[in-house]
Amino acid sequence: MTETPPPVAKRVPTERVHHGDTVLDEYAWLATKDDPDTIAYLNAENAYTEARTAHLAGLRAELFEETRRRTQETDLSVPTRKDGYWYYTRTVEGQQYGVHCRRAVRPGETAPPVSADGAPLDGEEVLLDGNQLAAGHDFFSLGAFDVSPDGRWLAYSTDFSGDERFTLRIKDLTTGESLPDEVPDTFYGTAWSSDASTLFYVTVDETWRPNRVWRHTVGTASTEDVVVHQEDDERFWVGVELTRSERFVVIDIHSKITSEVWVIPASNPTGEPAVVAPRRQGIEYAVEHHGHRFLILHNDGAEDFALAYTSADAPGEWEPLIPHTPGTRLEAVDAFEHHLVVSLRANGLTGLRVLPVGSDDSWDIDFPEPIYSVGLDANPEYRTKEVRLRYTSLVTPDSVYDYDLLTRELTLRRQKPVRPGPDGRAYDPADYEQHRDWALADDGTRVPISLVCRRDLPRDGSAPAVIYGYGSYEASMDPWFSIARLSLLDRGVIFAVAHIRGGGELGRRWYDEGKLLAKKNTFTDFVACARHLVKAGWTASDRLVARGASAGGLLMGAVANLAPDAFTGIVAQVPFVDALTSILDPSLPLTVTEWEEWGNPLDDPEVYAYMKSYTPYENVTTAEYPAILAVTSLNDTRVLYHEPAKWIARLRSLAPAGDYLLKTEMGAGHGGPSGRYDSWREEAFVNAWILDRVGRA
């Protein structure tokens, strides 16, 4: 390894005063993105990281090649039927992005067509080629991809920097030409009118909060577009979508804890929106159209949510359909002509429940593995007797099934192939085993852990391990399969997921006990999981690496301060490590909308003191820290690049004996590199660093 000294960030004390507390931030200057000193510092950090990891170049290339070899590069998704077409996406060996296609349904064709080795389907029509759109750009991302109900128009939007500000365009699928009426600076979410004459879309305010829904008439300039709804309450976001029945355009307005939904008949796009139920503080609800009624999934007197309905013609009282059952979290309802499918979670696992219309009967779809993830896939057709679902586990590759709602039969349409690695060995799930274990938190709460490892791995503490966590926004880290992860498992590394409070794995209570003034439970739960892995003989602290991203990056910074002895290394990707500074600034993207998640430290001294007591940047000490790899992106709008940059600078200042690396993607956003090969290289970089830390490089 190089002996080159790390970069030293200049110190420019900036004073911050809140609630009588004065803080001097010596690295606040790094928030100035267009300052040449900022870019120079980030480039110097990148050069240092590259030099410090140069000895891993061969391993990185090896890991990348293992992922590439195991992936079927020329591939084709299972086609999804919508009216007279099968829609699907293809990938081509050597190309970074997908090719979006459709092919007309042929007479008598009921099952999705199959392609040999991912080759194009006979008679296919290319709707959008991501590789052509991305040509000449270092970054490319699709926001909208929305075909009109008559199949003629494609609304799509593109981002070439990673800041998630998209340019919206409309393509005529009969001619292949894009119309001149493009709209800059749009957000996610579009909806078509029934006759495809009108497109609804969303824009953001200066703080990147989606606050306006617009109506655009196809063939006109965007300067003629009309605002349909403007949300002035800074706590709320807006979204727009077309119901599966294609009867209503839905405007969804929500904060972290409160909802309001408005609808417009899709057959009358210039009509005035009508509210389904006025917002009430603390009441969340979502709407799905079904025949003469709106289905309402809500938490009014139902912590884990209940399902009700109201008239679609004159929304009023909510009539119960599925009562609240504590411990069974209802997450979504999808309506089809003769069936409802409810997505739920219970006992830490996801599930699907089927309710035939007009019957008191209902049933859950069964799956054999002890831990898994299942959910509905794209199901655009309202009148259907089959639904498409996706299934995976820590050992089972992503699998697509069609479920017959009448016969209750599951048909496997495709399991993502895992090709032999460079050693020629085929993937065999029997070579691996997955477990559900439980740690005991400081307050006596049992915290679930999901693990996967090679079946022949010794259980004597000698194996290295990676423990992953998130724990915010009620987001659940349900088990998932990863081809890149096989490179770790086959080198004897255990992979574990800590299902800590702040996530939603065990229902709404699990979330509530890891937010606001209970946020520290998230961090202590994770440390408890790490300690349990050692106590139970899975691994040892000197060969355990923690990993998390975004809010999970906040988790990484917090546990580095809380229990630095528990880990030999920490990977923090796009980490929210300067949370207090960001949440104090309402001009920043997302801040005001985040106050219901973290609290409002600007107005509440108790929240201020509590956040200051755990925010990673505020709590760096002279402790002996584990090695830290921080990865960020210059154009990230969600977690700004300067948070990890400041964090690493402060770590170097206060605990200079540590090994800290900062890697900044200079042309990407929150999700990192956009192309699949670039993403594989990024993952190979991280995994090579992990293997080096645990002595398996």
Your description of this structure?
By secondary structure, the protein is an alpha+beta fold. It has 3 domains: 23-67 and 431-694, 3-Layer(aba) Sandwich (Rossmann fold); 130-283, Prolyl oligopeptidase, N-terminal domain (Methylamine Dehydrogenase, Chain H); 299-420, Methylamine Dehydrogenase, Chain H. The protein is built from 12 helices and 38 strands. The strands form 8 sheets. It has an 8-stranded mixed β-sheet with strand order 31-32-34-33-35-36-37-38, sandwiched between helices. It has a 7-stranded antiparallel β-sheet with strand order 8-9-10-11-12-13-14. Strands 3, 4, 5, 6 and 7 form a 5-stranded antiparallel β-sheet that branches. Strand 8 (141-147) and strand 9 form a beta hairpin. Helix 6 packs across helix 7. It is globular, with a radius of gyration of 25 Å. The model has no long low-confidence stretch (mean pLDDT 96).
